[in-house]
Amino acid sequence: MFELKRISREAIPAALAKAERYRLLNQPRMAESICLDILHLDPGHEEAVIMLLLCLTDQFARPGYGVGFKEANEVLARVQGEYGKAYYDGLICERWGKALLSSRSSTGAALDWIRQAMSRFEKALANSPPGNDEAILHWNACSRLITRIELSGNAADSESESAFRDDVPPL
């Protein structure tokens, strides 16, 4: 094992900017590593905690990344405030549901997670700071996604029925 090198306190703002840039470049592992460096130096750094949580959820649908719901919830426990906890709990559920959809898992299970996200976003609304409509934006996006899937007829698919669908080749 290698002994990790430590960043300086003065480097935290630039490191956070780099973590955000790596997330935007679709490199969540690099962004995750930067967040861990910041949190080693300052375990309570709220921006780094939230960025780390987002990096983990960015990896949900990526095969071989080994990041799951449990890891994201461990980081969620470090988020401060009622609003933040409810909002990011909703975000975890939303992204987990979308990861299930993209992995061709049970549509019903994925929609259940997205509905759970909507209930978390509603809880966040009760504690939302003035002018902060993030929870509403996510709730609406989840609602539209569920409606689109239900109107397309895909919501009726379930794991037990998938073997009997016409578009699934026999084994």
In whole angstroms, the N-to-C terminal distance is 45 Å
H/E element string? HHHHHHHH
Portion of residues in beta strands equals under 5%
Biggest sheet, in brief? none
Number of helices: 8
Kindly state the mean pLDDT as a whole number?
89
Number of strands: 0
Question: Into which percent range does the helicity of residues fall?
Answer: 55-70%
What does this structure look like?
This protein has 171 residues and is mainly α. It has two domains: 8-80, Alpha Horseshoe (Serine Threonine Protein Phosphatase 5, Tetratricopeptide repeat), CATH 1.25.40; 81-158. Helices cover 65% and strands 0% of the residues. The protein contains eight helices and no strands. It has helices at residues 12-24, 28-41, 46-58, 69-76, 82-102, 107-126, 134-152, 159-162. Helix 2 (28-41) runs antiparallel to helix 3 (46-58), helix 3 (46-58) packs antiparallel against helix 4 (69-76) and helix 3 runs parallel beside helix 5. The radius of gyration is 18 Å and the shape is globular. Mean pLDDT is 89; it is low at 158-171.
